Structure of High-affinity nitrate transporter:
Amino acid sequence: MAAPAIILATLLVACLTQACHGNVLFSSLKRTLVVTATPKAGEVLKGGEDKVTVTWSLNGTYKGQDSEYKTVKVKLCYSPISQKDRGWRKTEDELHKDKTCQFTIVSRPYSASAPKGNFTWTIEKDIPQATYFIRAYALNAKDDQVAYGQTTNTGKTTNLFTVNAVTGRHVSLDIASVCFSAFSVVSLAFFFAIEKRKAKKSSPPPPQM
Ligand SMILES: *[C@@H]1O[C@H](CO)[C@@H](O)[C@H](O)[C@H]1NC(C)=O
Ligand SMILES: *[C@@H]1O[C@H](CO)[C@@H](O)[C@H](O)[C@H]1NC(C)=O
């Protein structure tokens, strides 16, 4: 009677710890995809406004080795400069723990007969201000990563670009706070004037000593 329960519990724990899902190591993946993107090295782009076009294709060297690729998932990834002292962006070899690439740009089906694609993305407003590169993963039918490609070198030092989030969100916040301050000054003056009028009308003359 207890045995099935124990087996079930063990399975559940195994699934929760992701053993159920492939525990893929980044270091085990081959770099078979060629990934390029429009930002020039060092370019500063505006969140909520500027666009990035990403293209991906199978590197001809690996022709015929892509039979299990089902999907290409393109992601925006923090460069080492923007990960420093930030545990929540840390790179881990175990991909289910990895925090390098937190933003999905697009997912597209992969076709071995036309092993390439492109996508133009408007940088979303909520992308944090940081320095990035772009990585594409090839996923198999189980949605496990089986290969990758990226716009930077292995050391993640070349071809990085910056997203500047200051425009848009922060400007509108600034405008909102200026409006609020102006409103509070005006309303303060208004109530002050009313109080003064009331005081003039209703208060008895100051006592004469
Ligand atoms: C294709 O792969 C080969 C072998 O890994 C590599 O030397 C070459 O630079 C790659 N080509 C591109 C365009 O990335
Ligand atoms: C992007 O993909 C479309 C087909 O989806 C193709 O017609 C176009 O030439 C591609 N552009 C680039 C820059 O690769």
Observations:
- The chain has a mean pLDDT of 85.
- The radius of gyration is 28 Å.
- The beta strands are 30-31, 33-37, 44-46, 51-58, 71-78, 103-109, 116-122, 130-139, 145-150, 161-164.
